[in-house]
Amino acid sequence: MTAVAAAAVPAGVRHEVRATRVVWQREMMRFLRNRGRLAVTLAQPVFLLLVLGTGLSVLVPSTAGTGDYRTYLFPGVLTMTVQMPAIGAGASIVWDREAGFLREMLVAPVRRGSLLLGKCAGGTTVATCQGVLVLSLAGTAHVPYDPALLATLTGELALSALALTALGAVAAVCISRVETFQAVLSFAMTPLLFLSGAMFPLAGLPRWLTVICLANPLTYAVDPLRRAVAAHAPAAAAPSPGRQLPVAAELGITAALAATALAVAAHRFARPG
Amino acid sequence: MSGEVRFTALPVGPAPGSGFASPYAGAGESDAPAAGRGLPPVTVLARGLRKAYPGVEAVRGVDLTVRAGETFGLLGPNGAGKSTTIAMLCTLARPTTGRASVAGADVTTDPGAVRRRIGLVFQDLTVDGDLTAAENLRFHADLYGLPRRTARRRVADMLALVGLHDRRDSLVRTFSGGMKRRLEIARGLLHAPQVLFLDEPTLGLDPQTRAQLWEHLHYVRTQRSVTLFLTTHYLEEAEHCDRIAVIDGGRIVTEGSPADLKAAIGADRVAVRTADDTAALSALRERFGLRAHAAPEGLLLHVPDGASFVPRLCAGLGVPVLSVAVTRPSLDDVFLRCTGRTIHDADGVR
């Protein structure tokens, strides 16, 4: 009898992987079922690209080849697109806590790190999917639909999404109230985006702002996207504020950030009450 | 429910009083020493369980012994330490001092084993409204690592058990409070736990739904060999239990079956309305040697045999009697006797 029971609940890696996958699956189901939320989170970057980008392209005449300010803005808009759902994954941890569902997960015989990994994988997938949807608007920003470019951009977006989701998770495990979480993130995310080179080139900023920009993790998420786009549409190019790092180093910084944030979040999350 | 996995004599805890001297063996490794004495094995055992939070001592030394198959109720007012006790038994909170074992595993040293062997129905609703009933259960099956085929069958079985089979593919947010509760019970039982913990399972439900839920719980007990461990501050709910422990201020103040506890009071409750309560109070004291106290329903007193006392009272009181009500002792009287106040008063204070 007990042998059956023991076999019914296998310990070990496969069980943890399955737990991670089901948490990821739940995020996917909630994403696909909530079309309204999808529309709202996509509306802002699309609005920014089509309205603000078009309006400002009159003010900012194109200096290099084809394209205009919209081309410059495109990598930033992509980053912004993944930023919101990635943070949303963190918010879903806080919501689950508030709604009580988190307790159902916490009392299960699995490592809390596996649960957190599932949550972050879910946030990353959702964010990347939304990024790909906005990527389909490349033509409106005079960015060519080159398969290699699109693949590079998708990969880089996925990495940024992972780092941002992990950062959101760190905030979520440290903050237990939904209101506080939303206030903290909306306060932090807008300046981070502005100072990442997403909206305007960082070269030529006052020295103190340049320092902040170079310390801003989003800078290293936006710049590889920009350089990939610029290779095909020179209007996206921007002069670098300092000595320019190789793309691999920038991606490495983002990956390291993601790994650190995941480790910190998992560590905090695993603490028993 | 064909091919059901049933848990029978799993590792057997020591008999009450023997503390932790008898070592717990791993699942299925020990014979049942208590079986010889004809008692079911102990599934929940707590000794000197304490939990202190900064500034508050929520639980101050709780001893519990619950045997397999029992429905055990922890009865107490809000803030008595019920939820904290359950949280420690379910490994969601670490005891400050003291020890506890659940389903043969120590909650501090082997929380993983405890978690696999228990089900939990939380105080607040914890089903996901954006998923269907079946999806909620499948999520749980994956978290608990049930083999897929077993999971499929058990999801169907459990939904049938709690009467939600026809709603299996409805989004849970369309469910009523009672239906969500039933779904949580189904979920708590999905991985065939030895003990199902229910923390205030009927909180926030209307009386009719509450009664219905209890019908389901009783039905579950006829179908599964599972120990139910629940907390409540509803006295009528405690009546459903085989045994209850009354907890107040983080301590167990009394323990036993509802009938035994009521019998131990040994007295019926008599509520008398008179034309002059002050005169009646002194008459009761002088002529009957009884102490009464004023309550909203009249003067309250306790006598061994209420029915035969009423005629003597009416004849001998000397004050016009307007009405007399005799009630058998209730759990409220048990609570009053043990704590000096009614459970409703205690709820109000906190």
Note down, in words, how this protein is organized:
The complex is a heterodimer of chains A (273) and B (350). By secondary structure, chain A is an all-alpha fold. Chain A has one domain (10-270). Helix content of chain A is 74%, strand content 0%. Chain A has helices spanning 2-8, 13-33, 35-59, 69-99, 101-106, 112-135, 147-174, 178-194, 207-215, 219-230, 247-269. The two termini of chain A are 34 Å apart. Chain B has 350 residues and is an alpha/beta fold. Chain B folds into 2 domains: 42-262, P-loop containing nucleotide triphosphate hydrolases (Rossmann fold); 267-328, Alpha-Beta Plaits, CATH 3.30.70. A 6-stranded mixed beta sheet of chain B has the order 6-7-8-3-9-10, sandwiched between helices. In chain B, a hairpin with a 2-residue loop joins strand 1 (42-53) and strand 2 (56-67). The two termini of chain B are 45 Å apart. Mean pLDDT of chain B is 83; it is low at 1-36. The chains are: A mainly alpha (273), B alpha/beta (350). Chain A binds chain B through residues 1-11, 14-15, 18-19, 21-22, 25-26, 29-30, 33-34, 99-101, 103-110, 272-273, and chain B through 5-8, 10, 27-28, 87, 90-94, 112, 115-116, 120, 122, 124-128, 130-131, 135, 138-140, 142-147, 150, 187, 191-192.
